[in-house]
From TrEMBL:
SUPFAM superfamilies: MurD-like peptide ligases, peptide-binding domain. The keyword Nucleotidyltransferase does not apply. It holds the Pfam family Mur_ligase_C. This is UDP-N-acetylmuramate-L-alanine ligase. GO terms for molecular function: acid-amino acid ligase activity. Residues 2-117 form the Mur ligase C-terminal domain. Keywords: Ligase.
Length: 128
């Protein structure tokens, strides 16, 4: 299991490419916590394409930080866009739901949590 601060599409892509190179035979599952509505909206297609590199990706609700919610963008929007790139991507609406889904993975699966929010807490819970 890894946790990565990646919260920009380029960083997500590089992290997943490096993981695939280091662990070519492992299933790679990502739990991604988008940071900021404005960034997610601006880079929607780039996020979608990067997340589609994982064998499976789960998108958490957007971490708003200093922003007000934007009804035009959500974790579901990101997941829908990633599926248009052929990705196996789904949106989940709580960290508990994401944690429970990740706990179903086989021991040989590489799980990566990534984002600027507190998604790392899921990795901590799974590691316990």
């Amino acid at each position: 299991m890894y946790d990565d601060y990646a919260h920009h599409p380029t960083a997500i892509r590089k992290t997943l490419e490096a993981a695939r190179e280091k662990f070519p035979h492992k299933k790679i599952v990502v739990a991604f916590h988008p940071h900021l509505y404005s960034r997610t909206k601006s880079f929607l297609n780039e996020f979608a394409e990067a997340l589609s590199l994982a064998d499976h990706a789960i998108v958490a609700p957007i971490y708003a930080a200093r922003e007000e919610p934007d009804p035009e963008i959500s974790n579901h929007t990101v997941a829908d866009a990633a599926r248009s790139f052929g990705g196996n991507v789904e949106a989940m609406d709580s960290f508990d739901e994401i944690r429970d889904r990740l706990l179903l993975e086989d021991e040989g699966t590489l799980i990566i949590t990534m984002g600027a929010g507190d998604i790392y807490k899921i990795a901590e819970q799974i590691a316990d």
